[in-house]
Amino acid sequence: MQGVKEKALELLRSGKVDRVLGWKEGEFFYDLTPAVFESEAAAEKDFCYSLFSGANLSKYLISESKKEGKIAVFLKPCDSFSFVQLQKEHRIKRENIYAVGVQCDGMCDAEALREAGCDWLTGVEDGEILTVHTLYGDKAVEKEKALLGKCRSCKSRRIVDYDELIGAQGEDISSHRFDQVAQLEAMTPEERFAFWRGELSRCIRCNACRNVCPACSCEKCVFDNPASGAQNKAIANSFEENLFHIIRAFHVASRCTDCGECSRVCPQKIPLHLLNRKFIKDINELYGPYQAGADLDSKPPLMDFSIQDPEPSIIYSRGGSGK
Amino acid sequence: MQVKNEWKPTIVAFCCNWCSYAGADLSGTNRLQYPAEVKIIRIPCSCRLNPMFILRAFQRGADGVILCGCHPGDCHYTTGNYYARRRMTLLFSMLEFLGIERERTRVEWVSAAEGAKFAATMNDFVQTITALGENKKLEDLRCKE
Q1: How far is B26 from chain A (nearest CA, A)?
Q2: Is the Cβ–Cβ distance between A53 and A23 less than 8 Å?
Q3: Is the pLDDT of residue A72 over 70?
Q4: What are phi and psi of A92, to 5 degrees?
């Protein structure tokens, strides 16, 4: 947590950048929200980097990097994958950006802390065992239990692209992020249908997952079409949000870096990342391992093909899927 | 007069203009029968098929959707069906992941010379879907009349 705010202040003071993209406190100390700071005084007052800086800032660069002047941005390892993917898609102007990579040990989730029995939070001190200050006194919580869902299955601590680094460069981690997808695949179709209907019927169509996703950045979106007949939430039947969620995941398939923002922002706690991971898992198995955002040159698998590709019927014959 | 009220499925067949649509024509000129439940929608190339079209068809009451295109290697636009093949593989896998019956979607390569294959494919597909019954899992009451 050390040095990030100091770096932001230093960059603004020296005139190296005109603006800084970082985080500031919302209503509570634990709901940090992305913010742009245009002066040292503003950053001094509000800039905040803490255990709750889970938000991925790279999507904000689409509009911010097209403005006049240079902007500094702080990128955690997972954010840097989105940053590279956006460069690859020519969505951001790299020359206007000063990227500061920040090494990260995992970000915390206030909800997870509440589940661990800490309500009325007033402060959290970092460590392997977190010291959580609440109105009812201090509590000790293992950091592992307080992590954001996306941090529990962290895929890499490598910062792919940066101009400057705070902390050490890390490496890819062989995480078990596909385990839950595999578990679902092992169920019967009826069980899977019941699982997804239970999850997706909670959707309130707030579109937060779409709006936060760095890969989902079209200026005009199919789901804004008022003639679609499926624009709003309806209680007509219990699974009518399937189209939205399948297409949302499909539109970012092979470009999704698995940053996990969709699930983080979902107010209904739907495990949306599982849909994206299913696509990633399939792509890895059928077309070879691929990590979106890991480099600037490779072709996304859905914008590429091979003559030897399997026929669509392979998904019914290969192992893993429930019968 | 006796009126039969048995349920008939609605099948949407997306056919590529260059091969499969011509294949359907050929099966017609050869007087080969295939069920009237099949509604053909002509698309310029199998890769024109937006995955959303398939889901929209299901939302609006289709019971089965089949995509027919040129055989891999024979695409009028050289490579279109290769892209379609990857997309459909991933989409079908996702539908399977959500617990939708796998038989409801299919891809079949039918050339302009394969009128008999077209009729046989459609007969088989309609039979499969009739046995499977109505599509309830993917329908969307908001989109129905």
Answers
A1: 25
A2: yes
A3: yes
A4: -130, 155
Tokens 């990128």 appear where?
Answer: A75
A226 CB burial (10 A radius; 0-12, 13-18, 19+):
exposed
Rounded Cα distance, A241 and A209, in Å:
13
Contact residues, chain B, for A286 at CB < 8 Å: 89
DSSP secondary structure code for residue A309 in this structure: P
* B11-138 placed in CATH 3.40.50: yes
Taking CA atoms, what residue in A is nearest to B95? A246
Query: What pLDDT does A107 receive?
Result: 95
Q: Which of B137, B46, B34 is nearest to B89 (CA)?
A: B46
**pTM for the whole structure:** 0.93
Structural domain span for residue A134? 110-146
Question: Domain count of chain A?
Answer: 3
* In chain A, alpha helices (H): 4-14, 40-46, 61-64, 77-88, 110-115, 143-146, 149-152, 179-185, 189-200, 208-212, 242-251, 261-265, 273-287, 314-317
Same domain? A136 vs A262: no
Using alpha carbons only, give the angle B38, B39, B45 rounded to the nearest 5 degrees. 110
Question: Distance, in angstroms, between B10 CA and closest chain A CA?
Answer: 19
CA separation for the pair A290, A299 (Å, rounded)? 9
Q: Do residues A141 and A129 touch, judged by C-beta distance below 8 A?
A: yes
The reply to whether A313 and A197 lie within a common domain is yes
Decide: residue B7, CB within 10 A, 0-12 exposed, 13-18 middle, 19+ buried. Answer: exposed
Evaluate the CA torsion angle A67, A266, A205, A33 in order and state its sign.
negative
Task: Convert the pLDDT of each residue in A147-190 to its tens digit.
Answer: 999 999 999 999 999 999 999 999 999 888 999 999 999 999 99
